[in-house]
Amino acid sequence: MDVETLVRTRRALHAVAELVLAGPQFRASGTIRLRASLGGFATRAEPHGQVVAAELVASGQRLFLERTTCAALAAAVGVTAGAPAGLYQDGSGVGPEDVIEADPQAAHLIAQAFAVGDAALRRMFDGADPVIWPEHFDLSVTVDAVDYGVSPGDGFQAEPYAYVGPQARQQGRFWNAPFGAAATIRELGGVDRLLAFFERGRRLAA
Q1: Which terminal residue of the chain, N or C, has fewer Cβ atoms less than 10 Å from its own Cβ?
Q2: Distance between CA 72 and CA 183 in Å, rounded?
C-alpha cells in the first residue's frame, strides 16, 4: 500500500475519532477515552458510535468516509462535531469542515493494528483496559512509568507500529526511537510477537 493512501486514511480516521466520537462523548459523558472494537474503534459512553473499517456506524446509520466532512457526519448522526475543548494541544489538525476520505483497505490495516495491540496488552497485563486517546490516536496502557502501545502511524513512522516508551531515558540497541523503542506491526506480525516485543521492553526498562 502506498504511503499517501495510508496517511490520508489515518488522517480521516483520526479526525472522526477526535471530532465525531471523542468530542461529543466528552461533552455528554465527561470522558475522551475510546476503545478498540471489532473492525475499528468506538466510544465508551454516550453518544455511542464506532468506526468499522472506513464507515461510521452510529444512530442506526452506516456512513462511508468518502469525500465528506466531520461536520456532515456528525449532523447525520445527531451530534455536533468538535474536539474536546481545553484538554490537550495536539490533535488531528483537521477542522469540522475539512474534507476527509478513508480507503477501506488502509482503514482495515489500521483496525488490525489496534486489534492485535489490544489483544497483546490484555494478555500482558492482567485487567488491562487499553485506551485509544483522541489527541494522538494511539492505543496504550501505562504501567510502572512505562507506556506500551500501538500507533496507527505518525510523523515518526508512516505505517502502524508498536512502541515501548519509558519515562526514564534508556540506553541500548533496543531503544531505537526518540521516545523509547518502536517496531512496525508488519515487522512484528501477530499478537505473539507483539507481546514478545512488549515483554522485552518491560524487562529492559526495569
Answers
A1: C
A2: 36
How far apart, in whole angstroms, are the C-alpha atoms of residue 79 and residue 19? 10
Provide the grid cell at 42.
468506538
CA-to-CA distance for 180 and 205, rounded, in angstroms?
A: 10
Length of the chain: 206
Q: Is the pLDDT of residue 8 over 80?
A: yes
| pLDDT given at position 196 | 98
Secondary-structure percent of the chain, ordered helix, strand, coil, rounded to 5: 35, 25, 40
Residue 62 scores a pLDDT above 90: yes
What is the DSSP track for 62-124? EEE-SSEEHHHHHHHTT----PPTTS-S-S----TTSEE---HHHHHHHHHHHHHHHHHHHHH
Cα–Cα distance, 86 to 84 (Å, whole number): 7
Q: What's the mean pLDDT in 149-170?
A: 96
How high is the mean pLDDT of the chain? 97
